[in-house]
Design goal:
With about 350 residues, the protein is an alpha/beta fold. The chain has two domains: about 230 residues, Alpha-Beta Barrel (TIM Barrel), CATH 3.20.20; about 100 residues, no CATH class. It has twelve helices and nine strands.
């Protein structure tokens, strides 16, 4: 199977204004995953779905549960020694970064198991701290920067994920300027996403319309840089470039493999096709010990009228869970702004590949 996401913590030490997970607890009792349960989940999916290529430690804030992360990594290494698995899975985590500086245990396990670290940061201090505050109301910027210093000192590579919001527009920060600032912090990659609104309101539509030209300029530059230098440091365009170049068959049918080749298990052991859908009862696949087969809970592209006839249907990797969230958790309806971005990137990528 491609990926096992473990929500090792549904607690968080921050209170971000746009958090889709209700402050990290997903409207569930705040708790940490039990380490024994975590290794049992790993074994269960290994036995029923085959070798696991990647394990993603998620939250809440996953660094509140470092012993659980370490237990899973150690368990995988033990299985490798016993030849129960052909090779180690790749490990990754997405963290708010505020605990890294003082977490010797995380640094040790991250170095030992080459954990791919993605840290959330929304820009310079003034911008970041408007949206990403600690539970006590203090800003998080300096704690995150201190975390970067620790990662650099320990030679642990990291990526930065940034949520672009109307507050960035209000402060006259373009996507290009924000990308340049984040690159100056020396991450491996920058992941830029728009704030995920709970409905396609007038506000969200107007915001996305204003931002679309910025996305096009940013991705155009990224693709041209890739053409000249052979490297790209922003997530997004490379997915469509690869899709156009290699035309994976499954991508013509589905947006993703959630529930089929990728599973999320929360701290209570309940299984979902995606972490965004955690605690959405209609998408619950059951307690992990009862989940022994794939289940197609997410729509195919042919199931959505606007997608079935779209010019980029064979290449689009829009997240269906984000479609669902943007509809107010009612249905799978394409988010027009994301569609416009995807189509623009497709045309830019197609133009580049036609030259090669």
């Amino acid at each position: 199977m491609e990926r096992l996401t473990l929500i090792v913590s549904n607690k968080c030490n921050m209170n971000c204004t746009y958090c889709y997970a209700n402050g990290g607890n997903y409207h569930l009792r705040e708790s940490l995953m039990n380490a024994q349960m975590a290794t049992s989940i790993f074994d269960h999916f290994l036995n029923h779905f085959g070798a696991i290529r990647q394990v993603l430690f998620f939250g809440g804030e996953p660094l509140l549960a470092v012993p659980v992360i370490e237990a899973v990594c150690n368990h995988a290494k033990s299985l490798l020694r016993k030849k129960r698995i052909p090779k180690m899975p790749k490990f990754a985590t997405v963290t708010n970064g505020t605990l890294i500086e003082d977490s010797d245990s995380f640094v040790e396990v991250a170095k030992k198991y080459n954990i791919a670290v993605t840290v959330s940061l929304d820009g310079p201090e003034k911008l970041n701290d408007k949206s990403r505050k600690m539970k006590n109301g203090e800003g998080s910027f300096q704690k995150i920067i201190n975390g970067f210093h620790r990662l650099n000192k320990e030679k642990i590579p990291y990526s930065i994920e940034c949520t672009y919001t109307p507050r960035h527009l209000d402060e006259n920060w373009s996507l290009g300027e924000l990308y340049s600032y984040l690159r100056s912090l020396d991450p491996q990659n920058v992941i830029l996403v728009e704030e995920m609104f709970s409905s396609q309101s007038k506000e969200s539509i107007e915001f996305s319309a204003k931002v679309l030209p910025q996305w096009i300029r940013l991705f155009d530059k990224a693709i041209k840089d890739w053409e000249k230098k052979g490297e790209m440091h922003i997530a997004g365009p490379e997915k469509i470039l690869n899709a156009i170049a290699f035309k994976p068959k499954l991508l013509a049918e589905r947006f993703c493999e959630g529930g089929l080749d990728s599973f999320t298990v929360n701290h209570e052991g309940m299984v979902y096709p995606c972490h965004i859908l955690n605690n959405e009862k209609k998408f619950c696949m059951g307690y992990y010990k009862e989940v022994t087969k794939k289940e197609e809970l997410l729509p195919r592209k042919d199931d959505i009228e606007d997608c079935s006839s779209c010019i980029i249907r064979d290449y689009c990797q829009t997240c269906p869970a984000k479609m669902y969230a943007a509809s107010g958790n009612e249905c799978f309806k394409p988010v027009k702004s994301q569609c416009n971005i995807n189509k623009a990137v497709y045309l830019l990528a197609k133009k580049l590949l036609s030259k090669t």
